[in-house]
Design goal:
The protein is α/β, with parallel strands linked by helices. It has a single domain, classed as NAD(P)-binding Rossmann-like Domain (Rossmann fold, 3-Layer(aba) Sandwich), CATH 3.40.50.720. Helix content is about 40%, strand content about 15%. The protein has a seven-stranded parallel sheet with strand order 3-2-1-4-5-6-7, sandwiched between helices. Strand 4, helix 5 and strand 5 form a beta-alpha-beta unit. Helix 4 packs parallel to helix 5 and helix 5 runs parallel beside helix 6. It is globular, with a radius of gyration of 19 Å. The N and C termini lie far apart (about 50 Å).
């Protein structure tokens, strides 16, 4: 027994979830889940986090808050680069602006998105197109345009990471049979999560791992209206197996994990963040 124990070589796991020196880009990073993720990345050791969203003021305010965090690494910084991710020309401009600061990107969180609620019989074409364009097409082209920077510092032993933000509505179904039916949103989130699986196979050999996160309800400016429409926060918490809704640290921790050495063999997967509610809803 003593000889067998002597042969065991224990690994040093001290920094298994640290992101020292990593460079990240967070689209839709000026508020909500994107902002929480950016905060988590900086607090896990990232050296630079580029925050982008359509509104310049929101990006600047987010970066001011992030740069005031007391527990960042020395010299770590959030940088504002406003851009409209719904336009490929703006994505290209975003990449060009990021390249002025760095010659590589280690982490891309494609989090920008939109939703729309309307009765099935009245759902407007323009709204359906807007949701599909921003939630699917723009994510594809954001990843495509950033791939050269993601490849630049990537190796098989230390791959770059791409994370797309989906939704449990893209795994089960969203809101139906109501004045705020979200069929287009649900379809877009199913599509973006499946796109991540395809890109995991496409980009894995190039040193880029691609995964998705599917949040349930997280109270936020975007979600609060729908939360009230489907019963309110208290009722949703009671119905959830773990008796609460999502917290900022739930999403931030999932992002940090997927970007860390601890998730170095996770590719093409989806982390569901809803406390088990999707399975409770599936009960007969």
């Amino acid at each position: 027994m003593a000889d067998a124990q002597a042969d065991v070589q224990l690994k040093d796991f001290q920094n298994i979830f640290r992101l020292e020196g990593k460079v990240a880009v967070v689209t839709g990073g000026s508020r909500g889940l994107g902002l929480h993720a950016a905060s988590g990345l900086l607090q896990a050791g990232a050296s630079r986090v580029f925050i982008t969203s359509r509104k310049a003021k929101a990006c600047e305010e987010a970066c001011a808050a992030l740069n005031a965090l007391p527990n960042k690494a020395p010299g770590a910084k959030a940088i504002s680069v406003p851009a409209d991710s719904s336009k490929v020309s703006e994505i290209e401009r975003l990449v060009a602006e990021v390249k002025k600061h760095t010659d590589k990107v280690d982490i891309l969180l494609a989090n920008a998105g939109a939703t729309w609620g309307a009765p099935f019989d009245e759902h407007p074409e323009q709204a359906f197109t807007k949701v599909l364009d921003l939630n699917v097409k723009s994510v594809f082209f954001t990843i495509q345009k950033f791939t050269p920077l993601l490849e630049a510092g990537a190796t098989i032993s230390d791959p770059s990471r791409v994370i797309v933000t989906g939704s449990v509505a893209g795994i089960g179904i969203g809101t139906t049979n109501s004045a705020n039916a979200t069929t287009g949103y649900s379809v877009s989130k199913a599509a973006v999560l499946h796109m991540a699986r395809n890109l995991a196979v496409e980009l894995g050999p190039r040193g880029i791992l691609v995964n998705g996160i599917a949040p349930g309800f997280f109270p936020s400016k975007m979600a609060n209206g729908l939360i009230e429409l489907v019963g309110g926060k208290d009722n949703l918490e009671k119905a959830n197996p773990n008796k609460r809704l999502g917290l900022p640290e739930d999403f931030a921790a999932a992002v940090v994990y997927l970007c860390s050495k601890g998730a170095g063999h996770v590719n093409g997967d989806t982390i569901v963040l809803d406390g088990g509610n999707i399975w409770a809803r599936a009960q007969l």
